[in-house]
Amino acid sequence: MPTIRIAGQYFRTPFVLLFGAELTFGVLSVYLAMTWLQTEAVLGEPWLWSAGVFGGTMTLSMAAMGLYQSGVWEGVISYLSRLVVALFGAGVILAIISYWTPTMTIDRTVVATAAGIAIAFITLDRLIFRRLVDSGALARKIIVLGTGAKARTISQIAEQTKSVEIVWFFPVAGEKFDVDSERIVHQPVKLSDLAEQYGCEEIVIATGERRNTLPMPELLACRARGIRVTDENSFVEKETGKISLDLLTPGWLVGSEGFRYGARARMLRRGFDLVTASLLLVFALPVMAVTALAIFFESGFSGPILYRQMRVGENGNLFEVLKFRSMRTDAESDGKARWAMTNDARITRVGKWIRRSRVDELPQLLNVLKGEMSFVGPRPERPEFVDELEKVIPFYAERHCMKPGLTGWAQLRYSYGASQDDAAQKLQYDLYYIKNHSFLMDLLILVQTAEVVVFGRGAR
């Protein structure tokens, strides 16, 4: 099944279908609950609209808990905990909607019954979906043009994601064999005929040297027959949600689609930041007040509550980021910048809690209001680290072409970064975001950030 692209964001077709099926299950669950209870429990007309709100809220909450991501198969306990939290969140949202819109109210007994039915439906369909994924039934068939190191990288991605099945590796002159020899085409055959014979939807070009080696007439024949032809960078981008530094070249970045960041997009982004930061700041004030008091008491009624630190912002400009202080006041008494480590001894007892819950980042709402940060974007890094990383990681400076964010694509897809290797891994996701970002993608990131906050993923 092909990957769907909407507003610059790639969606895997099986997960889109899964989302649609579970949205339908949510609506059906309300109907079955009403039938079972033999009650006209939905006030207002039409009832289907209220049931749709239930189903939509349920699936949105599930998306927020990461239940539509390819890496969701972590185990039964992880799945059930995310599903329970998602349904609880959906219940809270429904209660708020019911309060403000009485004509869409669903009786609480119906909601509870529908939730139980939905859990049964969703668990069953997830078991079926997982079996289909593991069996490769949902994977789209591709042919990789090349047999060297780049082809091996494509093979590794296919094994990890299970979203594609490599039917054949098609050799080109001068390349050694670094892939499974049993899947290498050794007989003379036309590439287009081979693709049609095995029902392949895509040809991925993964050769080390392309001049005078690519079978251009055959690739054109594939395009003419409706078979997609993709280079290795675009394939990795679609399948992994990142841009591989190992495969990246300046020419590909310059010639590829994306990087849309005009005046209209900037205005929309800024307006969204101002409205959202203002509203969130109002709701977060009680939590911020309690956090400030806890830090004040723990420090013996002395020491700063807020931590101010220089960070690198848009176009390399420096700004002072605000955070609740989570470390001892002597954490860097020698003036040397250090990465935060797992179980860092410099973190206070209150600091452990506010880091895990991300409460320490709430003062950055003021940075957003000042225009120094955005809600979504690459996380701002310290200038000492940036100077070091730009020397050893190619394209690292490109992440500063837009405002840093409170949350971001890299924060969702990769754990906490505390080394040069981690910075290089996160850069691949930052480059993907910068290239493909859109308002829809920002909304999706904000929704999925709920999982990071609830489960404390990546906190140190």
TrEMBL record:
<feature type="transmembrane region" description="Helical">
    <location>
        <begin position="80"/>
        <end position="100"/>
    </location>
</feature>
<keyword id="KW-1133">Transmembrane helix</keyword>
<keyword id="KW-0812">Transmembrane</keyword>
<feature type="transmembrane region" description="Helical">
    <location>
        <begin position="15"/>
        <end position="34"/>
    </location>
</feature>
<comment type="similarity">
    <text>Belongs to the bacterial sugar transferase family.</text>
</comment>
<feature type="transmembrane region" description="Helical">
    <location>
        <begin position="106"/>
        <end position="124"/>
    </location>
</feature>
<dbReference type="InterPro" id="IPR017475">
    <property type="entry name" value="EPS_sugar_tfrase"/>
</dbReference>
<dbReference type="GO" id="GO:0089702">
    <property type="term" value="F:undecaprenyl-phosphate glucose phosphotransferase activity"/>
</dbReference>
<protein>
    <submittedName>
        <fullName>Sugar transferase, PEP-CTERM system associated/exopolysaccharide biosynthesis polyprenyl glycosylphosphotransferase</fullName>
    </submittedName>
</protein>
<keyword id="KW-0808">Transferase</keyword>
<dbReference type="InterPro" id="IPR003362">
    <property type="entry name" value="Bact_transf"/>
</dbReference>
<keyword id="KW-0472">Membrane</keyword>
<dbReference type="InterPro" id="IPR017464">
    <property type="entry name" value="Sugar_tfrase_EpsB_2"/>
</dbReference>
<dbReference type="GO" id="GO:0016020">
    <property type="term" value="C:membrane"/>
</dbReference>
<feature type="transmembrane region" description="Helical">
    <location>
        <begin position="46"/>
        <end position="68"/>
    </location>
</feature>
<dbReference type="Pfam" id="PF02397">
    <property type="entry name" value="Bac_transf"/>
</dbReference>
<dbReference type="GO" id="GO:0009242">
    <property type="term" value="P:colanic acid biosynthetic process"/>
</dbReference>
<feature type="domain" description="Bacterial sugar transferase">
    <location>
        <begin position="269"/>
        <end position="454"/>
    </location>
</feature>
<feature type="transmembrane region" description="Helical">
    <location>
        <begin position="274"/>
        <end position="297"/>
    </location>
</feature>
